[in-house]
Amino acid sequence: MTDTNQSIAFRSATPVAEPTQSKPTSTEPAPPQARAGSLADDDGPTPYVYEALEKKPYAVKFLGLELYNDDADFQEVQQQARELDKYVIAQAKAQGLKDSHDSYKEVINAIYKQIGRSVNEDPVKALKRLTTAAGALQRLNSAKLQPILSAKSLTPEEFEEVQP
What we know:
Elements: H1 2-22, H2 32-35, H3 47-54, H4 58-62, H5 66-69, H6 75-94, H7 101-115, H8 123-143, H9 156-161
Helix pairs in contact: 6-7, 6-8, 7-8
């Protein structure tokens, strides 16, 4: 009788455990690659070297503006994309972020956090807004004194030597 009960318990527990371990449920989150977006780190050159290799700014790829990149009438789009790349890459390097799509996206999201994001915004308008905001942020950062440098913490001689 003891052997029969142990066999039944063993056999009844096994089928229950196997299906839940081998079959993913629909409530499980998607793998990170599926949630990252259309671009991935292995999807061509990284942002720091993209323009040198592909002869177009990374912002063109990031915002989906490939249609406009080869059009001679859209030199402004290419110039704005270069300006945005310059700012985003400089910020990523200053923050110690690695050369990846996710780092580029992180800096772009930080800009959007400050200026707001429109859900159905045209990519060309998004590029213009991002470039304008990046330029404004760059001017603002260059105009600020270092946090440790202030009139209160400096002697009059040190304060006179500070170059704006």
